[in-house]
Amino acid sequence: MPERTRIERSFRGISERLAIRYLRNLEGERIDEDTVAGEGWTATISAEQVGVGPTLSLTEVTVVFEGDEESLESLVEEFARKAMRAGG
After folding, report:
1. How is 25-81 classified by DSSP, letter by letter?
2. Does the global pTM surpass 0.85?
3. What is the pLDDT of residues 29-38, one digit of tens each?
């Protein structure tokens, strides 16, 4: 059995809903409220408000990708590309 890899990435300026949509567009299927899974991978999404300076806050979405290294390599890269275009 291949070893599972875990990669955690945070993105500001996107919503949980948008993160889930991106993962579904990357051939994932929503399996519960905060988890999307695809062939060889799962991604768990969480969000929190983070301060940016004294008066501004943004949503920071954290995605924990788990799966075989080969599957995650391109998945994380594609997801990050989509998230960076949408967020900040």
Report:
1. HTT-EEEETTEEEETTEEEEEEEEEEE-SSS-EEEEEEEEEEEEHHHHHHHHHHHHH
2. yes
3. 999 999 999 9
